[in-house]
Design goal:
Blueprint lengths: L9 H20 L6 H8 L3 H10 L4 H15 L1 H11 L1 H8 L4 H11 L5 H12 L2 H16 L1 H15 L11 H19 L11 E4 L11 H27 L5 H31 L12 H13 L1 H19 L3 H13 L1 H15 L1 H19 L8 H22 L11 H25 L4 H25 L14 E4 L3
Antiparallel strand pairs: 1-2
Helix pairs in contact: 1-8, 1-9, 1-10, 1-11, 2-3, 3-7, 3-20, 4-8, 4-20, 5-8, 5-11, 6-7, 6-11, 8-9, 8-20, 9-17, 9-19, 10-11, 10-16, 12-13, 12-20, 14-15, 14-20, 14-21, 15-16, 15-19, 15-20, 16-19, 17-18, 17-19, 18-19, 18-21
Length: 494
């Protein structure tokens, strides 16, 4: 596969158009992180408020990834990704024009939806690449796309500094944020006219239109899926509580939000029951070749919780970490933080490639263990360290964190191809659950070295625990099985 990677023909053309679409999603998603100190000073925010803004970047990505997974299984990949990119200009402009804290918070909550773009590309890679190459393809897609956070960290502070003359001589944080939305909207149109959902002659499998819930193949898997849906609404409940603490939501609004989330969980449960009632009643029993184990989805949700979930939280706080501990400028802090995100170009594809070459279970387990250890090392870094050595430790844990993310999605498309969109959405949502919970914890920790140390130790211990879970519960997927639609009808590609 790597030999033809830069040919820009056939499946590689689709890969390049799609990873760049996801790259722009990450630019948008984290366009406030390297500018957060300037935003805080310009808008007169305190530490708790700016930390809450950072958490807002992840809020609606949880339900959005589930919804996007359903939409792409129904309407196709090209339309969904294009619409998502074009629509992103709205929250980008809302952020750039925000005049107070409340407007800033709601604009970032709206922008969090763009993180759901990841799910689209995972299904696209599974359509265009064979099982033997899908780990590498998803790794390149995710890794090169994730590097959009590095671009934000490097380019946006530089643009803000260079255009200060347009903003009364002040650090012009508003212009680069607005530009990210405009560029993404233009590319959304370009993407629509240059990609296809499937290779020529192949049809796009979709679940039956009446089934909005994820289909499982046993009663036990049904109850397990309901259990693992609960953290998705639970994390949003924690986020709502955080908003009430900073006076964005009143106590009454908080209780209404909690009741609404209970209703959402009820709707999810009802949709799951509709999708699986024949299995639950015993009217339908899947033949062995059409079954899959939802328990494997559950393990992958945990792995994505600790690896990319921690990555999302670290990307959000790392520029401030360097500014605070080493006293550097926003531009220098952005370059330092970019060392973490830029590693995605190599590390995430490496995780997928190793998964393809030497085995998926043990590759993922080893990388998770290395991630846990490297985070524990990072917990010892403070302002007394030599600045380049701190960056080197960031590079170390980036290798393990991002490679394990690539290895996770080296398995996801092999569980059940017709349901890859929904399965990918469920797994991907757990990174945002983790991001919200980790950043909520970070917002409650004391400012300074002790809080940073506890934060990184938490990430490290979580990684080691899930590595242990993988040893005993993760199974090597069967890549040679013949894929057939799972309780689906074949519809023409949109």
């Amino acid at each position: 596969m790597l030999r033809d990677l830069f040919s820009f023909r056939g499946r590689y053309r689709i890969l390049h158009f799609t990873w760049f679409a996801f790259f722009l999603c990450f630019v948008l998603w984290f366009n406030t992180a390297p500018l957060s100190t300037a935003i805080r000073k310009n808008m007169g925010l305190n530490v708790a408020q700016i930390r809450t803004v950072i958490v807002c970047n992840l809020a609606l990505t949880i339900p959005a990834r589930i919804l996007i997974g359903v939409l792409i299984d129904r309407f196709g990949l090209r339309k969904v990704f294009s619409c998502l990119l074009v629509a992103s200009v709205i929250p980008a402009m809302a952020t750039a024009l925000a005049q107070n804290y409340t407007q800033l918070v709601w604009s970032r909550i709206a922008m969090s939806i763009v993180g759901a773009g990841f799910v689209v590309g995972i299904r696209m890679m599974s359509e265009w690449f064979p099982p033997k190459d899908v780990g590498t393809a998803t790794g390149i897609y995710g890794g090169w796309g994730n590097s959009g956070a590095a671009f934000s960290a490097i380019a946006l502070p530089s643009i803000a500094t260079a255009t200060a003359y347009l903003y009364g001589g002040q650090f012009n944080w508003r212009l680069p944020i607005a530009l990210t939305g405009i560029v993404a909207a233009i590319y959304g149109v370009i993407y629509y006219f240059n990609v296809q959902d499937t290779p020529p002659g192949q049809e796009y499998w979709r679940p039956r239109p009446t089934k909005m819930g994820l289909e499982v193949t046993s009663k036990r898997d049904f109850w397990l899926s309901l259990l693992l849906n609960f953290p998705m609404v639970g994390a949003l409940g924690v986020f709502a509580w955080r908003l009430s603490n900073v006076k964005i939501l009143s106590p009454t609004a908080l209780y209404i939000t909690w009741m609404a989330l209970i209703g959402v969980y009820g709707l999810q449960t009802y949709a799951a029951w509709i999708a699986n009632r024949d299995v639950l009643s015993g009217k339908h029993r899947f033949p062995p070749q059409e079954r899959y184990e939802f328990g494997q989805v559950a393990v992958l949700q945990l792995t994505y919780f600790v690896n990319i979930g921690s990555a999302l939280s670290v990307v959000s706080m790392l520029p401030m970490f360097f500014e605070k501990n080493f006293g550097v400028t926003p531009v220098i802090a952005g370059f330092a933080a970019a060392a973490y995100s830029i590693m995605n170009i190599v590390t995430r594809p490496m995780g997928g490639l190793l998964s393809d070459l030497i085995g998926r279970k043990w590759t993922l387990t080893f990388l998770l263990a290395g991630m846990g250890v490297s985070y524990m090392i990072m917990s010892m870094v403070d302002g007394t360290w030599w600045f380049p050595s701190a960056i080197a430790i960031v590079v170390l844990f980036a290798i393990f964190v991002q490679s394990s993310g690539g290895a996770t999605y080296g398995i996801v498309p092999l569980i059940k191809k017709p349901l890859t969109g929904q399965i990918g959405g469920n797994v991907g949502a757990y990174s945002n659950i983790a991001g919200i919970l980790y950043l909520t914890l970070y917002s409650l920790l004391p400012a300074g070295g002790n809080g940073d140390r506890i934060f990184f130790q938490t990430l490290g211990i979580a990684g080691l625990i899930v590595a242990f879970v993988c040893v005993f519960f993760l199974k090597e997927p069967k890549t040679q099985e013949i894929e057939r639609p799972l309780a689906t009808q074949v519809l023409p590609t949109l």
